Design the sequence.
């Protein structure tokens, strides 16, 4: 009995969108096969565990949200451990392993996990297993899967060490743990990038598929030598497969009648208040032949208590595409049931640990409401979902291919044909027509439909009672794995919604009167605590925003113009705006920027056009980072001598990194310092909240 108790470990997760929880559940499921018991809790449930007295190993899976913050569920926990009165040996008794989730597209990669990891170390806690940092940019599973595989040997060694410290014989626990299947690994942790690379010593035993292989080539043409979503080639097609454990079902769905009302959309958000506001203006900012279509929408918030500052963001509650919902109902054979109310309950006797009613599913609503407003039907299916779909597939060839796509051996196929191709559930159901999942399976595996965040492009001081924002209509072109093109869930919906409002002259904001349209959208606040104008108006600042990245800076300039009008005696600092787009005549979004220049609100306006040809002897700069380098001395003066601010907004991968590299080069050149020293200066500017980014991938 003593040995059985010692095989327990504490498993904590902190999730924002469900990924960390799903990974923790995978660890919990695998633990049993290794003779262990995972005591799993959300990190916010601090009444159910106590790290101050915890004697067993602790495993933490934590994601990152926003610009590097821990998820909402971890806020109280982080605040508690960051108490400066805690002694440096507060957690000296604690042995833990941490898996952080993040996206290297963002500056503060895995910062949620790094913050907790660093603080636990400061308080004396010890690693029993090296920290893993998984990157959603390239695929979480590239680190998550081998990290979990190596966890079991590390736990075994932690238990043995624990026994030795207690002065007891380790034979019993050793033999008990050895009796359970486990996997050994050699762990190599790079101190610079902290990416885990684990090499299998033997085949993973959690759920190895050993079967006589189906001759897939009978199902496909012998000429198919290239893999596809539905077809594999050797070695995958000839491999025994290591697939995830089958997730236990835990949801029960009961159809009721068609009488009643669906819940209000405001009930779908967990924090804050949702406001239903009319769209009073819609303007297309780009020409028809522009590569991307940018729209500006104006909302009337006068009758609400919604408030914002320039630089803030807000969220839009958006529905799934109505045609895709109808198509999904048709494939599921539930077209006649769309308007029926359903009751969703936790299945009695489910084997799922901590099974609970999904918070994003109303207690009572129609099936169509759930598929329209609650579930992200466009979500890229995770491997656990694919594993569950295997059991709903009757065709033997289709079944095998789904097994391959969720297997370790098919990892590259999963990345190529599902993840990178933006394949969703509908695409899978078309590609594998014998797959007939139940409604409860969809509710269990499809994540919550997330509200979409947009930067405010106006000032409440300049335009009282109005809120403007700008966005590109996102396009997903068809590809071999997904033969249909699609628009973004929210941007496609908004574009269709405001079609009647769009003005004939789409290249101007000069409108004579506003539409009496009654189209409304639901929004809620998402304040940005950092991306605001300097508190001191005399401080100079630089704004860099190509494309729709200019959006928050329109609000900055409107606000600054109004302040200048109302406070003629104030001292106002120098302002720079660097804007870039492809073509001057197609997608120069705000040509009225010159008005800010003429009235003195804007001191310097620098623009560049990356796709326009030039006959000048010296070619003009193509990108915003090129412009910044042209004005190196001025930029260095603003940042170093005048202690100014530097704002960057827009695409992370193709712009923000290039801008930060340019700033490093400028600092290095103007300070006559090496690049490493310049990088340290930039890090200090970030820390001081004087180099600020609002970026997206």
Sequence:
């Amino acid at each position: 009995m003593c040995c059985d108790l010692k095989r327990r470990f504490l498993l904590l997760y902190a999730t924002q969108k469900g990924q960390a929880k799903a990974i923790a559940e995978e660890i919990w499921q695998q633990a049993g096969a290794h003779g262990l018991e995972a005591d799993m809790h959300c990190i916010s449930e601090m009444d159910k565990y106590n790290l101050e007295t915890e004697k067993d190993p602790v495993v933490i899976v934590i994601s990152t949200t926003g610009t590097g913050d821990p998820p909402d569920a971890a806020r109280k926990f982080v605040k508690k451990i960051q108490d400066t009165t805690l002694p440096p040996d507060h957690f000296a008794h604690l042995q833990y392993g941490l898996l952080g989730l993040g996206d290297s597209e963002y500056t503060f990669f895995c910062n949620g996990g790094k913050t907790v990891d660093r603080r636990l170390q400061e308080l004396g806690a010890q690693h029993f297993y090296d920290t893993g940092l998984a990157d959603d940019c390239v695929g979480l599973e590239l680190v998550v899967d081998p990290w979990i595989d190596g966890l079991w040997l590390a736990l075994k060694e932690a238990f043995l060490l624990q026994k030795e410290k207690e002065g007891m014989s380790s034979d019993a626990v050793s033999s008990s743990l050895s009796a359970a299947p486990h996997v050994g690994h050699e762990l190599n942790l790079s101190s610079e990038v902290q990416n885990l690379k684990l090499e299998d010593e033997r085949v993973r035993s959690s759920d190895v598929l050993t079967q006589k292989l189906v001759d897939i080539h009978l199902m496909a043409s012998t000429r198919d030598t290239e893999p596809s979503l539905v077809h594999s080639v050797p070695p995958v097609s000839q491999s025994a497969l290591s697939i995830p454990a089958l997730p236990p079902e835990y949801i029960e769905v009961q159809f009721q009648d068609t009488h009643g009302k669906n819940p209000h959309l405001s009930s779908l958000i967990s924090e804050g208040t949702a406001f239903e506001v009319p769209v009073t203006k819609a303007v297309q900012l780009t020409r028809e032949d522009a590569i991307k279509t940018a729209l500006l929408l104006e909302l009337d918030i006068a009758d609400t208590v919604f408030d914002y500052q320039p630089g803030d963001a807000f969220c839009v509650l958006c529905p799934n595409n109505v045609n895709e919902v109808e198509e999904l109902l048709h494939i599921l054979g539930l077209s006649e049931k769309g308007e029926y109310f359903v009751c969703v309950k936790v299945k009695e006797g489910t084997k799922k640990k901590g099974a609970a009613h999904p918070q994003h599913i109303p207690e009572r609503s129609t099936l169509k409401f759930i598929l329209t407003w609650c579930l992200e039907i466009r979500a890229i299916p995770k491997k656990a979902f694919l594993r569950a779909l295997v059991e709903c597939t009757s065709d033997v060839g289709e079944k095998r291919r789904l097994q391959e796509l969720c297997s370790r051996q098919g990892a590259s196929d999963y990345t190529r044909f599902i993840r990178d191709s933006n394949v969703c559930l509908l695409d899978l159901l078309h590609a594998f027509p014998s797959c007939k999942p139940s409604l409860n399976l969809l509710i269990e595996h499809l994540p919550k439909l997330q509200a979409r965040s947009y930067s405010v492009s106006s000032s409440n001081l300049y335009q009282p009672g109005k809120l403007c924002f700008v966005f590109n209509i996102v396009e997903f072109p068809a590809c071999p794995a997904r033969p249909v093109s699609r628009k973004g869930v929210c941007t496609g919906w908004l574009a269709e919604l405001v079609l009647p409002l769009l003005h004939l002259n789409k290249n101007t904001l000069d409108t004579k009167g506003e539409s009496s349209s009654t189209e409304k959208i639901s929004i809620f606040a998402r304040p940005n605590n950092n991306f605001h104008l300097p508190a001191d108006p005399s401080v100079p600042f630089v704004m860099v925003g190509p494309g729709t990245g200019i959006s928050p800076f329109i609000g900055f300039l409107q606000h600054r113009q109004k302040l200048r009008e109302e406070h003629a005696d104030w001292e106002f600092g120098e302002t720079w705006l660097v804007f870039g787009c492809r073509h001057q005549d197609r997608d120069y979004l705000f040509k009225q920027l010159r008005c800010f220049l003429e009235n003195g609100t804007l001191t310097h306006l620098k623009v560049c056009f990356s796709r326009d040809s030039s006959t000048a002897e010296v070619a003009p700069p193509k990108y915003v980072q090129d412009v910044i380098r042209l004005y190196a001395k001025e930029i260095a003066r603003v940042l170093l001598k005048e202690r100014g601010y530097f704002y960057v907004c827009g695409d992370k991968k193709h712009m923000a990194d290039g801008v930060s590299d340019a700033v490093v080069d400028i600092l290095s050149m103007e300070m006559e310092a090496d690049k490493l020293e310049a990088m340290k200066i930039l890090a200090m500017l970030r820390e001081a909240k004087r180099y600020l980014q609002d970026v997206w991938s």
